[in-house]
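Retry 2 of 3 after timeout on previous attempt. Resubmitting structure tokens to design endpoint.
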């Protein structure tokens, strides 16, 4: 059963680092009493020019999803900046997304050692300036998504393999199959650019295109690691 909660109580923290570094991130968070971690394999979509600038030869990434109490966010981000050197270009990115509900037992687990993580922390100055765009498309169409997004001002994104699962009513309404292999493209963008980027993606890779794309956005509250 889902439990309604104070929107500020628990956050989803997303940390994206080079492939093989995900376990380091997990260990850092575990040492700070963050118990729930999920690691996904993904890859980046930055252009060759950006990769050259960042000194990166490989776009394979680890994405770590963590449930954390809001009071611990700034301290956790401060720890990850120091230990993973996210203040340097190309080392990775971390950001938080608000949640509107969570199961009661999970909420208790996430917040039970909250006091251990509170204390002095550096202020984060990017709060509320960014959004997370999520595009779910048929496998093989991430190029179309990123070409459209970049034409509207995006600089890069991260791709996660996925598989759609749906029912007949949803497929009939949308006119698409949601059982095919999918790819999820996530893009961090400044709020003022979000609408143009989403419209560009919907036009080039939307539901009526061969990509059969679905595009949505989420607010980003705190972020580190942007170049």
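Retry 2 succeeded. Sequence:
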């Amino acid at each position: 059963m889902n439990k309604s909660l104070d929107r500020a109580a628990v956050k989803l923290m997303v940390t994206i680092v080079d492939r093989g570094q995900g376990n380091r991130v997990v260990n850092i968070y575990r040492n700070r009493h963050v118990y729930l971690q999920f690691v996904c394999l993904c890859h980046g979509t930055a252009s060759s020019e950006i990769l050259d600038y960042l000194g990166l030869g490989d776009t394979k990434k680890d994405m770590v999803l963590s449930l954390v109490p809001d009071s611990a966010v700034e301290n956790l981000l401060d720890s990850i900046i120091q230990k993973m050197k996210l203040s340097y270009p190309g080392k990775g990115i971390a950001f938080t997304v608000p949640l509107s509900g969570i199961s009661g037992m999970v909420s208790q687990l996430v917040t039970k050692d909250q006091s251990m993580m509170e204390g002095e922390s550096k202020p984060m100055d990017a709060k509320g300036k960014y959004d997370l765009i999520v595009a779910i498309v048929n496998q093989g169409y991430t190029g179309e998504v990123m070409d459209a997004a970049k034409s509207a001002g995006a600089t890069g994104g991260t791709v996660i393999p996925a598989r759609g699962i749906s029912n007949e009513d949803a497929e009939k309404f949308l006119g698409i199959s949601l059982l095919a292999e999918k790819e999820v493209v996530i893009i961090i963008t400044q709020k003022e650019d979000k609408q143009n980027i989403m419209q560009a993606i919907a036009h080039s890779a939307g539901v009526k295109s061969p990509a059969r794309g679905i595009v949505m956005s989420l607010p980003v509250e705190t972020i580190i690691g942007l170049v």
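Attempt log closed. The radius of gyration is 18 Å.
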